[in-house]
Specification:
This protein has 277 residues and is α+β, with helices and mostly antiparallel strands. 21% of the residues lie in helices and 25% in strands. Strands 1-2-3-15-7-4 form a six-stranded mixed β-sheet.
Length: 277
């Protein structure tokens, strides 16, 4: 399974050892470590089988750490290189440097508190965030040699965390939005993300310039989160040719991914990772 676009901006499945993950080969060729894991290849037991990477979901600690070691090894890194934030479903972005290496990699309480997005221009560090329906948004500026990673659930979308990540890259790296390349990874798609009328009204008000993001059928409303992220990023200066989405639905494809909604809240977590070699 792969994106048929043959340009630099294309995603595809890759395998390293037992680890299956989505990557962007065009970024890898430019010295970027980039991946979004599936649920296959790890040692966790039901209901977290197999490659659970979340330390906070009730899985056996040693199995999660072993899974994490396998993942970072697939990217020629170690847990000492990994940097994690606590993911509080907010919209705060932090600049990561070598002094933060290892944060949250083995102990959840040491993850960077209060943040859902990270940016970095320090080679050797591996930013990591964790998912079970929310959307990973990856950023790469090939001109300034900087990367970013945002955890964007519906609350993050409402807080414009993806746009805020672009703004922080502008501030700290002098990145130009027109240079930044973006991948929106898998998450719960419109087919499965039903919301109430109150939230639907808030979304329409908040994103009034955007179109085709809320679908209604009688009293049922479905929200297209990745399209909302896309249109917000375009409005912030990201070029359409520099943004790709992986439209796999984590809820529909629970054979491939963990899904909080599909599995009733008791499930594992995938990882999104990005860093500069």
């Amino acid at each position: 399974m792969k994106n048929t676009d043959s340009s630099v901006m294309a995603w595809e499945w890759a395998k390293n050892g037992d680890i299956y993950y989505i990557t962007v080969p065009g970024w890898s060729r430019q010295g970027v470590k980039i991946g979004f894991t599936s649920r296959s290849g790890g040692g966790s037991r039901s209901p977290y089988h197999q490659l659970n990477l979340g330390l906070h979901v009730g899985d056996e600690y040693d199995r999660v750490v072993a899974n994490r070691k396998d993942v970072v090894a697939a990217f020629a890194s170690s847990l000492n290189d990994m940097v994690c934030c606590q993911q509080v479903h907010g919209s705060e972005v932090i600049l990561v440097d070598e002094n933060m290496s290892g944060s949250g990699s083995e102990i959840y309480a040491t993850a960077l508190p209060g943040y859902d997005a990270m940016i970095c221009d320090t080679p050797g560090l591996l930013l990591a965030t964790f998912y079970a329906d929310c959307f990973p948004v990856f950023f790469f500026d090939p001109v300034k040699r900087a990367v970013g990673l945002a955890h964007s659930g519906w609350k993050g979308v409402m807080g414009n965390i993806a746009v805020r990540t672009v703004q922080e890259m502008q501030q700290h790296f002098n990145s130009r939005p027109e240079d930044i390349q973006v991948l929106i990874g898998p998450g719960i798609q419109q087919c499965c993300f039903e919301i109430g009328s109150d939230l639907a009204d808030r979304v329409r008000q908040e994103f009034s310039p955007s179109t085709n993001i809320i679908y209604s059928n009688g009293d049922a409303y479905r929200w297209n989160l990745p399209e909302t992220i896309r249109q917000s990023l375009f409005q912030s200066g990201i070029r359409e040719k520099n943004l790709i989405s992986c439209d796999l639905c984590t809820s529909c494809r629970s054979d491939l991914f963990f899904s909080y909604r599909k599995e009733g809240g008791i499930t594992g977590r995938m990882a999104a990772v990005i860093g500069l070699e």
